[in-house]
Fold each of these.
Amino acid sequence: MGLAIAAVFLPLIGAAIAGLFGRVLGQRVAPLVTVAAMGTSAALGIITFIDVTFGGNPGKAFLFDWISSGTFQAAWAFRIDELTGVMMFVVTVVSFLVHVYSLGYMAHDEHKPRFFAYLSLFTFFMLALITADNLLQLYFGWEGVGLASYLLIGFWYKRPSANAAAIKAFVVNRVGDFGFGLGILAIYLSFGSIEYDVIFAKAPELAGQTFHFLSGEFDILEVSCILLFIGAMGKSAQFLLHTWLPDAMEGPTPVSALIHAATMVTAGVFMVARCSPLFEYAPTALSVVTFFGATTAIFAATIALTQNDIKRVIAYSTCSQLGYMFFACGVSAYQAGIFHLTTHAFFKALLFLGAGSVIHAMSNEQDMRRMGGIWKLIPLTYILMWIGNLALAGVPFFSGFFSKDIILESAFAAHTGLGEYAFWLGIIAAALTAFYSWRLLIMTFHGKPRADHHTMEHVHESPWVMTVPLIVLAIGAIVTGYLLLPMVGEHGGVFGASILVLEHHNALEAAHHSPFWVKALPTIMAVLGIGAAYFLYMARPDLPAKLAKALRPLYLFSFNKWYFDELYDFLFVRPAKYLGVGLWKRGDGGLIDGVGPDGIAGAAWTIAQRAVRLQTGYLYHYAFAMLVGVAAIVTWYLFASSP
Amino acid sequence: MSGWPILSTITFLPLVGIFFLVLIRGDAATVARNSRQVALWISIVTFALSLVLIGEFDTANPGYQFVEKAPWLPEFGISYHLGVDGISLFFLVLTTFLTPICIIASWESIQNRVREYMIAFLAMQVLVVGVFCALDFVMFYIFFEGQLIPMFLIIGVWGGERRVYSAFKFFLYTLVGSVLFLLAILYMYLQVGTTDIPTITAHEFGREAQIWLWLALFASFAVKLPMWPFHTWLPDAHVEAPTAGSVILAGILLKMGGYGFIRFSLPMLPEASDYFTPLVFSLSVVAIIYTSLVALMQEDMKKLIAYSSVAHMGIVTIGIFTFTQQGIEGGIFQMLSHGIVSAALFLCVGVVYDRVHTRQIAAYGGLVHRMPVYAAVFMVFTLASVGLPGTGGFVGEFLTVVGAFAVNSWVATTALIGIILGAAYMLWLYRRVIFGELTKENLKSITDLNWREVGVFVPLIGLALFMGLYPKPILDVLHASVVHLMTQTQLARVVSPAALELAGQVPMLAAKQ
């Protein structure tokens, strides 16, 4: 327990030192301090993972009271159980590797101490999120990682696009948090607590009961879980609340790898798995999760097909893979979702950092249309990107193969309408995934060089400080699938009591017995996708343009990301600004001030003008008015004082 | 502290400072220098004394503590009566804390009539502290209305270009409320025969009378707070006020409205408070959404923060009128944390105003390149303002919506929508002022915070974080008095069974609307 808690606070200490004393310590030392703290934290994280998750040794620790008012109690407390152990492993290890990689990637940046401070601060909040023992502390970490994400997306604050993306990320996440916040309130109101142990124990009792929410009577658990899931949709960039994630690529690439691929965006999946004892009693909410997960999986994949920015392709791919994790949770195969979360963290961090290595080599070029023909120049990066894509596409024996297969099999084995929906969309998305992955590989590395001479002359392999973390991640992308297979083993895998699955929901158990064609289909689809990409971009490079022309409406729909940005601008941003100006100028300025103070002042002026005319100069007029006044006051006094 | 009249000492100590200020002789520069020193030291000593109150305060005692009572005009039932309970204690400390901050913040920016300026501030402190510990209506009224005069002068003499219009608008609004408030006090006095606040609180007024009295008090408190649609004086007053004036205005004067609701409307007029709850909720919800949208489009930094204050005060009134422990404590906590955070935000505006002499957002941009420390400080308070967990803003907002959700989930839902908008307008403001390229010529030589300014911000940052991470010491002081307040409101409510249901502690299931 002590070690795990030390792992949580070490990054905070590193962040504080680098952030507050960065200028004193200097450009070289400040980053190293955070790397050292993070390295220690990662070592402790691995120990915790082995001890708690595989050793089955969960524990809890109470620090001190946070907010207490009447029956509302929230404490600063830690819960290190099997689920936390897995997350701790992922977060600390990937974060450490990204820290090391950043030493090279950010070497020429003048704000290194600030960058590393933010990165470590993020890690602290993420660890606080996964070790929380109640919903409010989860919310603390949740908002904290949002803050770190905001700061890091906008890290290059000179760029207007980076600033806009940072605000967009924060505000869209707040929309999700609006649901999350209401969910916490609904749970507190119904359960009388927000502490995990209490609410999880009470869930069976409250299943099926209703409460009054807004204007109707609703099932407590269904409403609470759907509200919580709205929070997860924001953080994990699910369909409808996804718009911030692609824009978040404005941040430095290590940030995209750590926050917007491996860890923060998976917080939603973690939250659903953590709250499995609630979701299990909320079948409608689970259906909602399945629907949004499956829809996101296919929706994001269709967009990734046509994007030209290397990081945006990977970002949409992340969105799509998160969809897989969610529909796994939706069919009660939480373990499979967390398993995919783990493998994905490695191969997606690898892909992002690999893309960073390419961008680094190409003098900060991100557009794949101006790449190509560089595979011989940066062979190590090339091989590592292959490994990442093989894992992503789910090619056998790479990690993604194990985790994606078990998800699709679970969806199939759930034998529900939405399970089928998720299965088939997931299968199609698997083909699309393989297609856009190889499109990315071929456009980036093969064909004729499309960059100018100047750039091509400077193409070089990254320094070891960047490639070593990549190699470690690549090893992870190969072996985690097989090594961590016990996570989806019999009887709830290694998760013990930290994930609850009701007997009749056991899709994961059934998945092990699915027919052969279900097990084989994802691999077939992956091979088909790779083949199609090879044919279109390698064998017949003239075809994609023709295809885009022939299917122009479809192409534009995908290329413009289903027009979501335009739609939201029209639906929310413009009306808000229009209303803001209207209420200010017409409401405050015209109506309230016009009738109120300015109106009264004006009226007083008019009355004064008239009163001047009343001043007749005759004494008795004044005397009369005075007497009337005195009489009125006396009368009132008598009335008031009489018993 | 037996026997020693500590509340009187704290309240009237600044008068000693004023006395010395008047005595200062010499040329203009000497007078200015000495005035600053005298005012600063007196305010610091007062603050230190108020810390003694926190140390000596008994959190288990729900009643008034450090009570001083002496007959003043016994034939009229008027007495000199001071005391604080858990509700007023921290408002008093907030006042004594912000006054030295204001004096340091005005150190260089006020060069004109320094002595008079300091006298106005110390006088203001006397009157505001008096408001929070007066337990007699006559005293309360004198303090409550008296503070208008120094504020009026601060805006009118040391304010910006349109200062006269703003000062009069401020005065006009508050005056209307004051007159009705005075009538209400007169009526209560004639009914009860004394102006002693605890005695009047124990008196039960008839339903009809409660409704009229409530409206009269509402007129005064709703303007002070301010609630929509009585808020338009606030942006104007802030814009024209000098920085320290805005700090006191936002940090403390607004809270007197909320304090009034808690101290008078709820316990004295519980039936009417219950009756008018829908009105308060409606106005608060409108305030949150309306002023957040308006804040989004502001072009003047101070106006933007002023509008955000109105939205935050909307949260406060929602909390108070939930009649739940969480709601009321959340409302009080929100006022305290807003007192710190909005004060700090106005100080942030003051920092760049002192250097560039404009409050137009468009005149800034890219300040982070020249002012990294300032950017970091401004960021902390921006985040505290949007209610990020871990800052004081979160605790109050969250407890408020906990209370609101139990009573009416619509109200809680709309309040949360306001929190989304809050993030939008604050971050957009921050981006336009701090981020981007530094292109404007007059900003290229701007200097970062000096030591004096850092010294002003450090305690404020410390408090904002402390209140967010460990609010327990503050909440512990509130508990006993708030529970006592709730029993007071409920006792009077036995007459109306419908209201009793509403006032219950958070119902476990099936919350009633």
Amino acid sequence: MNSDQRSCSQIASGVPALLTLLIACCWCPTTCSGQLDSASFIVEGMESPVIRVIEGAIRRIEREPDSYARWYQFAATLDAHELLEEAATYYQKALSLRPDHVESLYNCGLVFEYLGRNDDAKKSWDQILSKDPGHPHTNFRVGEYHFRNGDLDEALACFQTFIVDQPESAMGHSRIGRTLLQLNRPDEALAELNRVLESEPLDRPTLVSIAQAYLRSGDREKAQQIQQQLKDDESLFDALALIDPLRAAVTVRAVNSNTCIARAEKHERIGEYACALKEYQLAAVGQPLNAKIEDRIGKLLVRLDLSADAILHFDRAIALDPTLVNAYHNRGFAREKLGQRKEAIAEYLHVLEMEPDHPLSTERLKKLGEL
Amino acid sequence: MSLWSYNLDRVDGQSLALIPFLPATRGSRLVPTARYHLSVLWLIPIIILVSTSCQRDEVPANNPIIPPVDVATEGQQPVKPTQVEKPVAKDPWLIDVTSATGIDFTYHSYESGARLMPAIMGAGLALFDADRDGDLDLYLVQGNNLLPGKGQQTDSPNRFYRQETPWKFVDVTDESGLGDGGFGIGVATGDFDNDGWTDIYVSNYGPDVLFRNRGDGTYEDVTDKAGISVDGFTASCAFADIDRDGDLDLFVTQYVEFLPDKKCSSSAGRPEYCGPEAFEPSRDILFQNNGDGTFTDISESSGISSIAAASLGICCEDFNGDGWIDFYVANDAYENNLWINQQDGTFVDDAAILGASLNLNGQKEAGMGVVAADLDGNSTTDLFVTHLDMESNTYYRNLGDQMGFVDDSGISGLGPSSMNFTGFGVVAFDLELDGDNDIFIANGRVRFGPKRSGTVSPPPWDNYSEPNLCYINNDSGKFVDGSALAGDFCRAVESSRGLAAGDIDGDGDLDVVVSNIEGPARLYRNDAVRSGSWLAIRAIDRSSGRPLLGARITTTDGDRTIVRTLSAASSYGTAIPAMVHFGARNPGSRVVVRWPSGEREEFATGDWNRTIDLYRGEGKAVE
């Protein structure tokens, strides 16, 4: 079936599809005008590296117009820079060339979701699940769809499928806990929410939900204790929002990593650590073997009081580049913040073995009374 | 295991429902074919046909208007009806009648490319009876050219329009003295000096102003005399009697510590209006009325200033049923606050424990406007908060029995359908007099987006315009999108902000006013087909003639109990009429009023389809 024939069959399928088609024609001027002109995608103030990436993607499409991968990369580039309607269009173009391309289906769903086209998002994800019902991340997304729509039993089933594959996911347990709370099953919700705290003890929204669960289960006193903790403990923050692996890792964004790094450094200089973290995470997608990016991510997580998560990134940085001295020091500092004094000292001493004059490790060891 | 190594090779080819949005392709270029364009033309009559048939199916049966009856009963004062003949109700429901009203007002932000945050905030409005003649007058808040970096432009102050006859307004700004020239954001109304005349507090980016109504059509700036000194980025504000001493205190939300030099951009690098997180959040202010025309700032001692958050929307209500006024504050990118009155001049934020601080995913949202009303008919007050696009508006359903709120946005139908819109002003009222509250939302983006079809805003606001939303309640807290039938209200594609509902023409149903950035303020006449009867109630203190804000009034509609609270603060930067409005299919014969002072009294309603005044102390006391 060619594209024209496929269009006709859809038109025959019902008026909603016709309406959608009409709307799509209206908001798709670039495509309808027959041009794939980089100028159509360049917006006021767009940084030159971004423009080069877009122009490069278009050139690659012109060289390989039948390559779904080229169209996908182009769509992902637009997606990464919030040109969402355009991104949706070209994810679909990639899908016209390879209908089972999971990345395009998944990301297209995300973009539709951002655009408020929730049913289109679900249709996109359903195509993944039709072939692979256990696909964990897609189950999470479809679970979110049901959760938002108030279809709580369906949401719970999806989240539970996800957690089977990702049993340690704080995000997964968080969603299951909240769904159970919505279902007015506070005791079961508490069990799930407490599992979130095991890995993210400073996550404020989880504590908020736990307070509500206690209130609903009739333990008002315990609820008020947690409420007091929420008021007094200034170290609490939105931990899960910063480490959402489901968005950062799966949205394969064809961005210019160096641009991300430059932006991250800019954010870091003015103390916008959460923003910096997001940029480094994007950069890491583009440069997954760059040890320094992993080290920077770890440092930011330490600054954001996520030292346990930070250690995982330092581990990865060291695995990628065992000579990266600062990663050992930073891992030591993270351990120190977690109260692992002995392990921290060992890290600092290891740094001095590699670089005897390392000023920061020397300073830490002095402060710890080891020098 | 990484996601993309997961089963990629197991998926085989299949047809894809999403594909046909694309036109046919030729070679490497996307080229539309003539057949493609022609193929959609035949859809137009089908769409019209479908739309028309839907309208016919969903419109309820007509119910002729019952003429007003002049019946006096104990403790109530019949009011001379100002009702005008209503045309035979036909679709659409809300008709734009602005051009015939004498209202000619366009809000100017004086945006010149600098993208200064106050310019995107827009402004609210006040719909209230300024001269006690029984109809509603209109105060519209204006921006100005005083933002940093602006050239000299013609200054245009806030405007005040007095309603002379139904739908006929006269601009009386100059003689009233209400033409404040600050960079306006919001307005609150209330009789702070207990003289029976409604006063006005204007919130600005810059110094706020308190105007005292002299009762002769003129107003006096008493800001300094009253001890008010607010010079920040004020958004919404509200008068309420927090200490039950018989005078109105004042809650003033504060947004952020705006820095004009701060520049922001989108992920694509496009210069964009900064969001609240680009600045330090501010702390809200609470003024206690001293009873002598002056106020004392009790922000610190009350606990209100203990939290810094970017506050925008506010409503006041007795949320925990203890008879004392509480405040709910919608914060932009911060947890919302539910300030529970401790009955000793202090407040404690219980939003977290009561489930009204974060959405169901535990996420902070961009709270803009808020309305407190019983949306599910269980006689408790629910909350509805409007948000940024890519978020949904959030419906916090009150569980009752002190169990707090649950985010029922999804199950109610109010959530996902709003994700493509940025909501600001919001009102809940009974559009078609069937006994439940429907919801109306004024939308408009704060970040650049594709132009929506039908936008009438001038550049650059055409990229910030959105249609408004309308949801119809099915009697149980489940809502359906009524935008297709709402008429002009949802057809207007503008950057809307303020929104108020009130019975402008005195015909018994509530009409709507919307303010727009770089667009005209619009008045919409309610022509919806009526399903029942109406009753408008003013709950008043006889000695002062002052509406008793916070009075909670209960009546029945058949077996169902309907509860409404007298409030003048709601929506976004907006003051709403201090009057309770009921619709009912099977109207009850009595109402019970719980006055702000805590006493409860019962009154006979007499016949419905009229406005009545209920005076405190003149009903039958009930336990």
